[in-house]
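Table S5 (text form). Sequence records supplied for joint modeling of the four-component complex.
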Amino acid sequence: MKLDLTDLRILNALQQNGKLTMKELAGSMGLSITPVYERIKYLEKQKYIKKYVALVDRKKIGKEILAFASVTLTSHQRPMIEQFEKEVLPLKEVMECYHMAGVMDYLLKVCVDDMDAYQRFVVNKLAVMENIAQVHSWFILDDIKTDTSVPIHIPD
Amino acid sequence: MKLDLTDLRILNALQQNGKLTMKELAGSMGLSITPVYERIKYLEKQKYIKKYVALVDRKKIGKEILAFASVTLTSHQRPMIEQFEKEVLPLKEVMECYHMAGVMDYLLKVCVDDMDAYQRFVVNKLAVMENIAQVHSWFILDDIKTDTSVPIHIPD
DNA sequence: TCTCAATAAAGAAAATTTTTCTGTTAAATG
DNA sequence: CATTTAACAGAAAAATTTTCTTTATTGAGA
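The corresponding structure-token record, covering 312 residues in total, follows.
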């Protein structure tokens, strides 16, 4: 039920490098393959590990624009909220979408080819939604750090 | 040099599921294992694929707080910029950090256990930096969409 | 048109990894 | 002190990755 130090070390290693072999992991932590194998299967089954993915370099495939878009809705009624969230999910330009506390309702991370595509996205995909009040955009000049790994504190 | 349709389909498949086997990929695209293998190796070598990672469920390991922090510096002189970026990188609470265009200088995605930890992070790690002028925080109520996959348009 | 070279893909064998299975050790419990 | 259970080790089996050899296909130039 509760993760021990070994589990946390495995999680941490795999979120840095998902291609580590059982052998490599076992070696680095002074165990045989079996316990490492069984722990990984447990972490996967219990969904501590949500999935494994390849991270693609967006600029190398021509996605020059990464931006955050804040969205404010006209109404915070339950059906409005649900409608917006349902419509945002299938938009592939939207890599991330968060329901926010405070001045904005949603914050979206948007990835597109160029400014032209961004403009089309906002005008044709966001602004057409029924209950959108405001959209503000902030553009990223440079990626300083882009980690997918959740901070895991390993006591030693 | 330029990626063709098959390369894009492989990239797209692997950024959804990094554990797909060559056999599965080959089968789904009507090819044998060899061309799939060679294309993947090419995509890795050329860094179209930056890395493979396991995605960990932050809440399941007790990270209840995910927030964005905007940072404004007191000065935009080159050395100040570089100093800030150098100091942010090793902070493991900071999963992402972007240099922004416009009103804020940096936007950080921060992940910690609880509000207490967030407060300590801002006060002890951010506010102690030499050239920080302002820090504003926005807290996430709910994750609506959290994709790591770059939108890839596959013509068909 | 023919030949040659280059590219892409197929198929099979070798190497490595994952997965399963069996047995051992150690800790904990009654 | 005996017994049960959990964690681990080691080896065998199954599957996957990697390498190697061969076959088509295409395009350029003689």
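Note: The first strand of chain B starts at residue 49 and ends at 56.
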